[in-house]
Protein 1
Amino acid sequence: MSAELAFEARTTLGALQLEVALQVAPGECVALAGPSGAGKSSILRIVAGLLHPREGRVRCAQETWLDTDGGVDLAPDRRRCGYVFQEYALFAHLTAWQNVAFSMRQVPRRARRERALELLERFGMAALCDARPQTLSGGERQRVALARALARTPRVLLLDEPLSALDARTRAAASRELQAILAEVGVPALLVTHDFVEAAALGHRVGVIDGGRVVQEGTAAELAAAPATAFVADFTGAVVLTGAAWRDDGVTRVTLDGGGELTSTDHAEGAVAASIFPWEVTIEPAGEAAHGSTRNRLAAEVVSVTEIGGRVRVGLLTPQPLAAEVTRESLAELGLVPGRRVIASFKATATRITPR
């Protein structure tokens, strides 16, 4: 029976002070997103019993796996964790089915091949059951690793950067497959990634982790709409501008470091960071008169033009670096090339303010 995963740990990892508490419901995937060295993978290792914290507790399915106060520390093979390692960590000398069967210590030896083939069939890999990992594509290795993780009938699924080993061409399809698998398995899942977009796609909740602590937790939409810190704003893909804020006639005005001024409907005073998502920024020809409800207008120079899928990211030089996303049609219509002078405009309601 599936049950909630409850985790808390405090420990020192080199110069990093890790202090995290999490709860993951049955069938829920919590994605921990943050930069390298933030402590993400260490959390998975503590849950799995591969790393021993100074203080901590791990409970799942009414079982205590770790309680440093009570002297409980179950060995990894007693914790029933399905662990998908970064780069998948498949055994090169074993075939696909043998890699899956390796985790089936609770299954009689004579029944392991049949059970492994059933799992590989579930992932569309039965035809490659006798292939060795080095002959498989990145997406195929991922499926074998997932089948191996599920072979233990896990009570918790742990995924360490599950898409990072894939090339861009296969990552989108693999992400969709992984979403379907997580929904089907129905156990608590804890996923770590350095990519907020990946976390948003796979996690029911996202915890942004920095310096060993979860600095904000919520749905991806909540984090993007109301970042608690400048770090969270930057991590979710917003452009962050720094300055000093004061209240004026019911709104917040921000004098930007280096020059320029912004208006926001958020309340703040003192040293602040203003964040704006590139798709909220409109580019207008230099010298064009203000129109509509847009209150923030900054003179800018185009410094870069980069195509991203069906959109174009335009790097802008204002008193601080800014970026906008436009369509290819707008790019051609406005004649946006490096060196072009323009106006970057965005609404006060789209400008989020956080303390600095």
Protein 2
Amino acid sequence: MRQVVTTTTGDVDVLKVEERPDPQPAPGEVVVRVRAAGLNFADVLSRQGLYPDSPPKPCVMGYEVSGIVEKLGQGVNSDFIGKPVVALTHFGGQSDLIAVKATQMFEKPDSLTFEQAAAIPVNYLTAYALLVVMGSLHVGESLLIHNAGGGVGLAALEIAKKIGAVTYGTASPQKHKFLTERGLDYPIDYRNQDWQPVLAQLTDGRGVDLIIDPIGGHHWKKSYASLRSTGRLGMFGLSTASATGFSGKLKLVKAVIQTPWFHPFALLNKNRGVFGLNLGHMWHEPEKVAVWMREILRGVAEGWINPYVDRTFSFEETGDAHKYLEQRKNTGKIILVP
């Protein structure tokens, strides 16, 4: 089989398509013939040497795939052979073939292409946990989505609209029309102005009930200051540190230094909450994740979840895909196809 291998830390030229032996399923596992694999910002940070959870290099990244079940391990129902599925993978997903636990796969909805199905696990599980599980977003409340045009941003927008929340989103100006068509109530240009006073003006100085922020560093301080009473800040990334080589290390150190400390007394006095989410640290909670995934797939069946794929790239074009994502050119999900 072929895999996209991050051979070492560096620029996109360290990404190579290599031949590796085909995997064999262990008991309780299946082997999936991959038709589409998701690309996430964690993959970019791993290549840059800035992702602490990355496996040692050389490594194969990839947290999500869709494809056809080709082989079964002992104890797996034979009815799964030939089934189209979507699956969560603990790395290794950017491959022709991947062995996964049967409990980490779900039947692919007929209404979705393989590319759309591969856009679901990371983005929608992250958005669902941020908004529903930990963010407790309710009808009539307000939500600010940073990087609203990204994969998690679009997923959060769909979930928020289903809940009945008022939505604000920061995005570059060229994405505003698309986001408005997708249901965003108030797009905010963060490239040419400071988003914070604009949000204050739009909310009459009150702020919003929930903010989800993948940027990190001093940006979390601004987001926290933009919460209203009983507001919650959900932190789920550190994209501000993204850069290759020594520059990335410096940006990471700067981001860590600028990260605010949230003292319990301040939270008490302000009636605010903060929480963090790292989906990659949820592998020991498969039952919880399965419940969330079933709710998301129910949303697909009901028609209010419609994953948006911006572009697909072949395995040989993975370097171009990394550049496209790293430069924030995408609106929605980036997918790799074998």
Protein 3
Amino acid sequence: MVHFLLFLAGLAALVGGAELLVRGASRLALSFGISPLVVGLTIVAFGTSAPEMAVSSGAVLNGQTGLAMGNVVGSNIFNVLFILGLSALITPLVVHVQLIRQEVPIMIGASLLVLVLALDGTLGLLDGALLFGLLLAYTGFLVVQSRRASREAQAEFDAEVQPASPGAWDARLPVQLALIAAGLALLVLGSDWLVSAAVFFAQSLGVSDLVIGLTIVAAGTSMPEVATSIMAALKGERDIAVGNVVGSSTFNLLGCLGLSGVLAGLLPGSPGLTVAPSLLALDVWVMLAVALACLPIFLSGREIARWEGALFLGYYVAYMAYVVLAAQQHAVLGPFSAVMMGFVVPITVVTLVVSLLRRPAHTT
């Protein structure tokens, strides 16, 4: 019971810390005249991925490299299948053309790069530095690109990210710096609590840190993305709901794994971030397949329909079932896998191909 409360407290601290960090950093940036669009593309996007980065980094420093890897891979699978699926069930989601042409291919490329780097069983210092360097380059590219953004995009972010009014409590520089400091402190504290509780759960249930990272921790650290996307869908801001998930997934791969790889590589006697064979055998491939699946679904009319959202959710439930059954070496694992690979997956592929061919693409 104590460790369950510790897990909940850690999760609350992560979400609260991310909120304080985003508020303080956003207000500070806007006070220095940085445009709301740039703030939205950088600080806000980073803020929703801050729990994953804090937990993965904390896990590395505690020697739980399986938890660090599982958290990122599991979060990306959760982002696309669960968050997009649930958001699309609320309302069909509009997919902006830039996501199809640029952001999704970048997410796919980052997923493929992580797979290639992990094939030798480790993500070392150089691998982590490469990933983190690409994150910095990607962020810089977004900032440069934002200068040529349309008025509609600028107006959208003006509404989403607003500077504090002159008399507001968070309009002063000391308050903004205090918010940033408090946010970072909560992220560090929350990650320590969450990792400690997750390790206890893994030991109590007799499963690996990797399995806990792929399931409980991945879902927990993705709560900011859940809240952001669902609220955007409810408000009718359907392109933000999709963009948040795609952008966060890219940040997870380049930022979280990049920083974790660097930290692991700097530890004395450590070869880097260890990649479990089971992760390479299934989960990283699932993450890549989920990223690839976005393209045909996004292209089919440039929206995610409710039935496609239900399909995403169904596959997430099936993936979770497989992870749990595999962890327990359950007798039904073989028949379950045979049904999924021999019937469900082929039927899904045929359905998506037919849907893509029959639905005319929008021209606007």
Protein 4
Amino acid sequence: MTGQPDSPHVLVVDDDRELRELVVDFLNTHGLRAIGAGNAREMDAALATGDVDLIVLDLMMPGEDGLSVLRRMRGGTRRPPIIMLSAMGADSDRIIGLEVGADDYLAKPCNPRELLARIRAVLRRGQDNPGHPVRRFGEWTLDLVERTIAGPGIEVTALTDTEFRLLGAFLDRPQMVLTRDQLMDLAKGSDTMMFDRAIDVTLSRLRKKLGPRAPIRTVRGEGYMFTLVPQ
């Protein structure tokens, strides 16, 4: 099945032309609208059209690499979700990818069907909340559609998927001590793999985005507690 005009639009960014074309063709025959870009400059040109729903981004590229692209884009409030691909499959590389803003991470070579499943899962999670609802806690406001946070002394800041899930887990369980293992289970969702130390990276990044008065307290020897009750 070839993607229709209203199908999700996926941009595959990879300097390996043969691999890029194979992935684009596979996605196009499975209901998506996929196009390719060979480098960051071509990616920027495609994004300028404003019609990209998700980016599949290779980590290792000549010129501006995937990590640099992520760092440059992570402050945007409307940037598409990003699935990072890398031939380096070590946990440390995955952690770095998540830390700088990737919504999901796959090691290369990957099964095209797994990539398709991950793409659909990330897109589906972005459509979970129709309308424009928000959740408020203390002086902070979480936009459930844009997945952005605004609060005291911070500008509107985009959250990655794992940050959004982790914050949601805290909001649903205020003033409860949650262990690291519990947070891993709550933040990973049904479609995303969570691995050792990723929760620590996500938690640290979330605290920074909430600012110096982040309402997340470390309970020594037990876990973490969200200290505010949402409105």
